[in-house]
TrEMBL record, chains A, B, C, D, E, F:
Residues 163-279 form the HD domain. GO terms for molecular function: exonuclease activity; nucleic acid binding. Keywords: Exonuclease, Hydrolase, Nuclease. This is 3'-5' exoribonuclease. InterPro entries: HD/PDEase_dom (IPR003607), HD_domain (IPR006674), NA-bd_OB-fold (IPR012340), NA-bd_OB_tRNA (IPR004365), YhaM_exoribonuc/phosphodiest (IPR050798). Pfam families: HD (PF01966), tRNA_anti-codon (PF01336). The lineage of its organism: Bacteria, Bacillati, Bacillota, Bacilli, Bacillales. It comes from the Bacteria. PROSITE patterns: HD. One of its GO terms (biological process) is rRNA 3'-end processing. The keyword Translocase does not apply.
Length: 315, 315, 315, 315, 315, 315
């Protein structure tokens, strides 16, 4: 398998296709324009400088453009930087597609969809089942494409579905260990809890926040949408209110964005399963980059802690 | 005018109709049942003990029953207490009604309604105007009856409408002083900001929280309802989103129940006008009970502060 | 099955053996001594007054004494109170034992011990296994007897072992779902994390804090004891340090009593499994006392929240 | 009207007089000295580099010097930067004055003074009136010149008077809407509340903190000065104490610099009027720089929020 | 020496003079008036009930009246209570004085005054010395009489002087150990830091807060008074500002009442010496009431902690 | 005395030996390698650039290497930077030693050791004395060499011993002023409180945290070690527990790293003496660098405050 850009070391030469994630123009001290590019493929990203650019270059080498380059990896202020030696935009005949340059969930779309369908099939409460089924149907393509967040955890293609399916697996086992749990409720809460992100985030390639996302946030948007959906489906039981509560409270505390804290057993559990799955995703990915006996870099979304991999772990 | 129960002093005799607000049964040390009653009229409330009650008494003298009593005001553990000497439930022929025993806003319903109508008439943005008009039409009776809160401020009949109309008056003047303000937006936000309380609170006489109120809270409920209303009215402009944001953010901070803080000028202002009107309502009512040169009791909703009335104030 | 004292209602007559949990002397307004007793059996507790007591009574009817009484349940200040009509201390011939009057874990000691042994047997890392085995051997009787806390969660006989075994079951499943987890480390952390409570708490019947418990707390005490044990067993690998870290960090934050936060993946997970199991224990026990459609009382250890049992739950 | 330096875009040529706000010396990598200048006029500021400077240049081109330059606006690290092509210090014959290069309040001094005088004239309480009049007389020139703060809000010439007069207008309207308010007290509090800044801040051109300002702060300094003034004027009523309290408490909370919170109705109101006027000043100035449908930059003094200008606002 | 009322135990008989600290009227369940008295002497206080009081009794037995009683100590709700068997107000011929019934500092007034004088004599900076000397002269009687606080620490006659003198002793030693300290400044700060309490507190017998104390607090009042004093003495050096800063900052943080934190070495030290002396006073008095091996009651002003007296301490 | 590197000014020439504290490799914009060195001697440190380095240079000029250089002090981004003109590694014949280039306590090792011995000699409680003596014996060399912290206060050779001895002097005086203090306990607590740092910190030259230090921290490590030592010495009294408590609680609050707050008088005092000595060390060193009438730079470990040196201080 070809080595990804995320694993090149200082001194390596590079030749191949990459995607421009960001492009910004600068001026050197003697007034000449240059471009700072963030290049990426499915394994990671690297900064590059393109010197002495023409007006045409500035129009061509922009975000979401695929390019073919040769270059060499140097170090600049302690971080690797690609020194580009030749460059051209990709042609239709190159047969490359944006989706090849983006990180994906380690599980295939089909398998994720199958797990979702299976879970809905297991649900016995008809009101909960119908609402959940309707949302999956309405957003199927987006659920299987979107990341679960713009950064920190599950921030890759299919990340949202991967997060949901992983949480469902935990929920299934906890449901067996604590038989008082209402599994239908917990499953429904897990599947719906983050769907508001489909409207909060702009998309998959260079994920940002929508206006709606900034002014309302994914939690109130999803609470509202459950209400609309229940009306459309003519469902009226207490299940609608409880589902809205589960979405509303799943951040656990006012300070963390839930104006009401969990007041239902399954809502409390949903909050913890969400935390565990997000943390395991962050920790596993950070720890697989270090060797036994080493610390990871600081993890911003985990209170800036740095984690240790015991030296008795097998590599 | 007849003296209200809120102004009787220790040693006074009392005779007249009062409303039972709460009733609870107790046993004396020698095992005899008695009732502890909270009695109220439109001016205030007082505790009373009814000794040696029969099984029948326990069924008759319950919350929301109007009674006729004679008695005398004593003191018990530093607080006034009514010693009931005779008691009977009110008869239809007495011609008394629950509404006479409940505190009301100092402004009449008709006047409040007129001010609301007038404001809507002044609005120029058709989307905002139509949404606001639809809500006023849908909830007119409740808006003119409900309190603005279960305690602390405007906790009386028509309290909600009184709060809204009072805030509109402030908004009008600030809109003149700072001409950049979008008055339509500010008016619409003020009128809608607390309408979720119509579903959050149980009613007027002995106000408590509904199940929906506890599990969702008035803010997310109203955000959702604005969405429904806009759909029903087929309104689609950015005004809908902005109105939802104004309601969502009007508590100002996550810790205070707004998962998103104000990000629109008029939303920021709405938050402050709401604070000022609530505080002036609490302060004015607390200060009118004390003389110049005295402190009020502690005001729970104002960080437990006790306020001073300067001795150079005219009484 | 005989009805427990926890389920008697006002008006019921009572006859049988109960345990005195607390006893305190008072004086009536006319100067006569009486005793206020907290009586308990395995299902709950009730307050009782014993009037006109003699000097002898005061010596006999003290905490941890089993007594036989007849009486009647009254209500005093809104809470049930036993009116004792006859009383005598238990005799050896009565054949009753303190353990009958104390709440127990819903799982038998033997089964709990078996699960512990099984888990140790599964462990592959010899250093971790030896340390854990040595602690189980040293404290076997206490582990199977102590509560996990003096109040809030698992506060019953065998509560500590019940908590540990329940957490191990969760750990096993999470270990399967997230295969990167080092199960040996997680199991060892779970089994040891709260053993310091054996020195922090005074015992089972009327649990209080020891001097050591107050001045050091169970976390630093257990960290120290792991060090001692490793020395005794001549174990020197990094496992000792990591185990100490897991115990030290299992409260998650400085403010919650862990001077170091979790810096190992399995330590982070231990913290969350501990939280989930404690919360499920509190929630399940509180919710089984209320009917669908009702709220529980306030749960102090869960931020004073009151939880709702959906009305569509089967009773 | 000539275009101000605040509105030049990258690529524009510039010729004209500007004020040096700050000047600092640096060395290039090959050891040659250069100056980094912050240039400003009444509309804004821009950074500039002056290369290859002589010893003489370093002495001439210092803060508060007016210079004539020609240059061109480039971009450096995402921010505009003036590339100076020729430069000379201003001559007396140029007829330019520092005051032309500094931002001013949008209301004239004379009008501000008139409003202040008018308000004092309206006051009926002689003690309050005399104290306020004495302060206005003592500091008239400074009040009409100083900014209200060194940054964030009203940070321009006459900013303090502008802030006071704007607050008085709000107070007048609130006084009409809530007739219980003691207008004399509120007016006096507003006029005096920030006069301590005349001693806390160094002046108008490049505003910094005085030693007194750093070691005491404007609030305790003004409390003290009210005491001195009352002594001088031989005023002894409770008004002096109340005025001192209003100044002392106007930041609202200990954490915000008021060791005593407001305990007088008018002190509470003063705090809110101060907040509203400062926030409206910041918001209006930030929003007038963006188009409908855009967000402002982050506003540091408003919890770093970024505000949105609805797309239905007229530009 | 005669045993003080603070050391009587349940069952003891009492005969002697005591001071009424508080007196409040109540009604028994059958409507008869009684008085609840707080009685005190120089060693402590006890509650007492006086049954079947006449109108005359209510007028005689009021706060600050000295009375002669016989009685017996009982227990009521876990606290000792005096059962009065005979009572009469003191006569001039009894030769008893209020001052005998109030706790005093363990050091005599004369000795405290001497220490103050001595310290002032040691000071070399004439500005600091003159200001301090002037304050001691102005308030000499009050300084030697007032408590340092209304409760918590040094809350007894001469408590303020005792606190100052004790802090001066610590300062002297720290000044020797860290020779960089400016002793004059530290001494001046210590002597003046709490003199604002002479205006904040109402006096010695039943200490409460004055209006000035509530609305301004002792810190801003003293800052102002230092300013007045310096004017009166025609002192103008930086010492005045620094002294004001020391008083202003001596609570250490905004949240603790100092709007400016210490920014001078000696101010920082003053804050710590104040803390240490207050804490030692509280701790020593709480610990002298318990035996080795026991815990004190909860100390409110020390974060509600309860302190342990090691069992190896000599009693 | 020769001028130290800490006092060279921009423009000065330098010639002499210095120690490389840190060395890191960079690439210039045209791809040539260079080294950024942090050079230090006993008086301070300076950054330097070494251009055009060879592969050999990169191996030679590393941390902890002593070098001889000539150079000139320039300024780069506002900070002084050494421009190296010639460089060579030190030779054995140069007769220079690492210890000459590191800051040392202002008191000699012998004197520090003498003070420690003296204090132990004064202790009367045999259990406390034996434990303390054993620790001093075990760690004598390290105690006299280690810094008290990696930065902020006493961060120099013998800093730990200097800190302990300085605290003992304060303790001795406080013990005299407050005779209730148990001096033996306080002395023992002071000597042991920070010895855990000998395992937490890596050493003296370029101090960092050990793995143990990161995962446990010096406080729990020292609590454990006191337990071990007591076992080894066969000491069993309450003194062991109390000493462990003193170490455990000496940071004062959970948030500051002490899971249990001080619950012993001497533990409370230890916390304050520690604070005072650390703060005086920081303040004195910061203030000796500025002139009267100036402010220090911001002191990170003192809430980022900047301190003022009064202009009436003698220089």
């Amino acid at each position: 398998m070809k080595k990804g850009i995320g694993s090149y070391l200082v001194g390596d030469s590079f030749e191949g296709f990459v995607l421009i994630k960001e492009s910004s123009r600068g001026l050197t001290s003697n007034g000449k324009p240059f471009l700072t590019l963030i290049l990426r493929d499915a394994t990671g990203e690297i900064e590059a400088k393109l010197w002495d650019v023409t007006k045409e270059d500035e129009v061509i080498f922009i975000a979401e453009q695929i390019i073919w380059i040769t270059g060499e990896v140097n170090q600049f202020r302690g971080k690797p930087q690609m020194k580009i030696t030749s460059i051209r935009p990709s042609q239709p005949t190159d047969g490359v597609h944006v989706s090849e340059f983006i990180e994906k969930a380690p599980v295939e779309r089909e398998e994720l969809m199958e797990k979702l369908t299976e879970t809905i099939f297991e649900m016995k409460n008809p009101n909960l089942q119908r609402i959940v089924r309707a949302f999956i149907k309405k957003y199927q393509e987006a659920i299987l494409t979107y990341p679960a967040a713009s950064k920190n955890h599950h921030e890759y293609v299919s990340g949202l579905a991967h997060h949901i399916v992983s949480m469902l697996a935990v929920a299934k086992e906890l449901g067996n260990l604590y038989p008082q749990i209402n599994k239908d409720l917990l499953y429904a809460g897990i599947i719906l809890h983050d769907l508001g992100k489909l409207k909060e985030l702009s998309g998959v390639v260079s994920t940002s926040y929508t206006l709606e996302g900034k002014l309302l946030g994914h939690i109130p948007m999803m609470v509202e949408e459950i209400g609309h959906m229940a009306k459309e489906l003519d469902i009226e039981g207490e299940e609608v209110l409880i589902l809205q509560h589960m979405v509303l409270s799943h951040h656990g505390k006012k300070e963390w964005g839930s104006p009401t804290p969990p007041l239902i057993r399954e809502a409390e559990l949903l909050h913890f399963i969400d935390l565990i799955d997000a943390k395991m995703n962050m920790l596993n990915r950070a720890l697989e980059k270090v060797k036994p006996g080493e610390f990871t870099g600081r993890l911003f979304a985990m209170d800036n802690r740095t984690f240790y991999k015991p030296s008795f772990e097998k590599e």
